[in-house]
TrEMBL record:
PROSITE patterns given in the database record: PX (PS50195)
PANTHER family assigned: SORTING NEXIN-4
Native organism: Rangifer tarandus platyrhynchus
Boundaries of every PX domain copy: 14-107
Gene3D superfamilies for the chain: Phox-like domain
Protein name: PX domain-containing protein
A Pfam family annotated for this UniProt entry: PX
Length: 107
């Protein structure tokens, strides 16, 4: 591949929604988890117009997998830590609702 054929494209990524879901885990036990809607927009024109869009739902574990992958294969870049998985009140050792709007926004 020559340098003239290679170009980086700008991609805008946002997490636009979160919702509580229930499903079965590997041991066939019911569990509740939070899923996040990830939206991507590929910006290809010089005027900044978004051309290609896509969206998908992902759990927090997918972000953990991505972060670990980046740490291993790109050790020269700074990968910020992920936010906590649960809203906890340390002084009471109680877990709060993971769907609390303030917690979801921080996360």
């Amino acid at each position: 591949m020559t340098e003239s054929n290679f170009s980086l494209k700008k991609i805008e990524i946002s997490v636009s929604e979160a919702e509580k879901r229930t499903g079965r885990n590997a041991m066939n036990m019911q569990e509740t988890y939070t899923a996040y809607l990830i939206e991507t927009r590929s910006v290809e024109h010089s005027d900044g117009q978004s051309v290609l869009t896509d969206s998908l739902w992902r759990r927090c574990s997918a972000f953990e997998w991505l972060r670990n992958y980046l740490l291993v294969y790109y050790p020269h870049i700074v990968v910020p830590p992920l936010p906590e998985k649960r809203a906890e009140f340390v002084w009471h050792k109680l877990s709060a609702d993971n769907m609390d709007p303030d917690f979801v926004e921080r996360r």
